[in-house]
Amino acid sequence: MSNLLKSSLISLAATIISLIAGFASNIIAARLLGPAGSGKVAYALWAATSAAAIADMGLPQTLLRNAGALSGTGSAWKSLVRAALRAFTISLLMVCAAILVYAAMTYAYRDARHAWFWVVTAILFLSYAVSAFSTAVARSRNRFGQTANSTALGSALQVPLVLVGAWLLGPTGALFGYVARYLPQALRLGHYLDRSIPASSHALTPEMRTYGRYMWLSDLIEILVLSRVEFLFLGFFFSATGIGYFAVGLGLAGLIEQVMLQISPALIVSFSDAHAKGDQKALQNAYSRVIRMVALVMLPVSFGGAAIMPDLLPLIFGDAFLPAVPAAATLLAFVWIAGLSVIPWGVVGAAGRSWLLLRVQVISGILTVLLLSLSVPLAGLEGAAASRAAITTLTFILLALTARRHVGVAVPVGALARNVLAAALCAAAAGTAVYLLDGPAAIIVAIPAGAVVYALAVRLLGLIEAADGEMLMESLGGKLPGPSRPLVNGLLGFLAPS
Fold first, then answer.
1. Which among 307, 322, 305 has a CA at the least distance from the CA of 252?
2. Residue 140's pLDDT band (boundaries 50, 70, 90)?
3. d(C-alpha 44, C-alpha 125), whole Å
């Protein structure tokens, strides 16, 4: 569990840097390009990530699960990486060619400006897809530090390039900043290859191919349907402006959700080890502890953020985005459930039950399309947000039930319910400040008020077990600056007095 926490903390640090850069980029795009222009950028990002999901064929997930396990078998893991890369490259070039053909058609039937927008989207697709493949190899080898360094470098390049690009070239120019974000890790791929090892077709076993195929189909549904499919409905029934409104709400919620998506590879590696050893008690303990710790961080941010949304969103993105407030508040209030869903997803995937994940994704995907078909024409942005909240909740329930039935691990319902109560008290305190005050003053008062109430609730409700506090200090102790250690010790002593 200690190694899991250390790997998770490294991923978390990199994720925080990435999220700050991504959030700053979203603000820049919104301020410089307005709802319509930022909507186009958001649509291109979704198109690029969707194309990458189509192209990867589940190979990054296959490597993440299997390359590390082959460490003790000589060059087997190197042969696996070469074989996966060969298949990945063929698929990558085919999808890239399809995007460029669409760009050529856009040039013929519209104009060069729209054509160049899709050419840069194709470049973004390549950068993102290769980076994802490279990251999977690195994390399967427990090289979380390398991916963290690449993330930090890419994030440092992203913000100024988005600013300059949006200022000079509009939405097309802004995309160059996102291309730069993924380049450092993409360029590291060569360091993980041993060209003296041939790419044997036998390296990818039938079991690996089956696992990868199910994970691929599951990821396709997640990216194409469950992540940003609202953009299609909003763009069809409304315009790029509607996409821009919804995108800023998703951007705020994504600050929380992406933390869990980045931590999930460490969870999969750890859960895989426990499952391979057949240690059911250790697996249940790890599962419960991760859920408790993640909920402890995510719930107050989710509930509290939703409570202060009426003042927070226009303060960040400008008054032009005021129509997005109700939808953004709904998205943020339910995003903690999306974050927790990564945990049962990870434990089921680590057990090799990828077909079960696919079944859940299919059910959620079908219901998503049906709900959006009804809610968006009737209720617009708010309907899209309510549909996402309902599907997110249903998906978590299905994943938790799947993990309990097929892996034998159960969600700590009691601890989670107490955590929800503590977060609700936090939101009530923050919401009271927003109700009594306006603008920046409301935010300045609401955040510390919510934090103080939440800390008291954590102590009174006993949300942090003594063992959890000791493990946190064991993992953080050597990494914290000397002067901060007594402060952190004192805080943990207050929150977990036992």
1. 305
2. confident
3. 9
Asked whether the beta carbons of 63 and 83 are under 8 A apart, the reply is no
486: how many CB neighbours lie within 10 A of its CB? Answer: 10
DSSP readout, 447-492? HHHHHHHHHHHHHHHT-S-HHHHHHHHHHHTTTS-TTHHHHHHHHH
On the CB side of 448, CA atoms within 13 Å amount to 4
Evaluate whether 336 touches 302 at the Cβ level (below 8 Å).
yes
Using 50, 70 and 90 to split pLDDT, how confident is the model at 6? low
Is the Cα torsion angle 301, 304, 307, 313 positive or negative in sign? Answer: negative
Q: Are 434 and 465 in contact (CB under 8 A)?
A: no
pLDDT in tens, 191-210: 777 666 666 666 677 777 77
**Over residues 149-176, mean pLDDT:** 92
- For residue 308, the SS3 value is coil
| Residue type (1 letter), 92 | L
Residues in the chain: 498
Answer yes or no: is pLDDT of 158 > 70: yes
CA distances from 343 to 60, 293, 318 (A): 19, 11, 35
Query: What amino acid is encoded at 21 in this protein?
Result: A
**Token duo for residue 276:** 């391979």
Q: Whole-prediction pTM value?
A: 0.75
461 alpha carbon, distance to own chain's centre: 29
Average pLDDT over residues 225-252: 80
| Distance separating alpha carbons of residues 31 and 117, to the nearest angstrom | 20
CB-based contact 449:432 (threshold 8 Å): yes
Q: What is the DSSP letter of 407?
A: T
pLDDT digit string, tens, across residues 29-78: 999 998 889 889 988 998 998 899 899 888 888 877 776 555 555 566 67
